[in-house]
Specification:
Blueprint: H1 2-22, E1 26-30, E2 33-38, H2 41-52, E3 58-61, H3 71-74
Antiparallel strand pairs: 1-2, 1-3
């Protein structure tokens, strides 16, 4: 859980500048770095999974309030 807290802190540090240029878009943060800005959650999630697998990484809509989800859902990976 500490790793995701690091990602949240990194996002919060860059949030003001992201809001100026990318309000409503979706940001992916991994290892305290902005990976990319995406038009939808689905596109952001697909790219995050492609690059980093199960994570941890943060996907947050820029300008939206944070959403809390249970840890059991944070790292759920479908196995086929």
């Amino acid at each position: 859980m500490a790793e995701i807290n690091t990602e949240i802190a990194a996002y919060e540090a860059m949030e003001d500048s992201l809001k100026r240029d990318h309000i409503g878009k979706w940001a992916v943060v991994h290892h305290s770095k902005l990976v990319g800005i995406f038009d939808s959650f689905e596109i952001a999630a697909a790219e995050a999974v492609r690059q980093f697998g199960a994570g941890p990484y943060l996907i947050r809509q820029i300008g939206a309030p944070p959403v809390s989800i249970p840890a059991s859902l944070m790292y759920h990976v479908e196995r086929g």
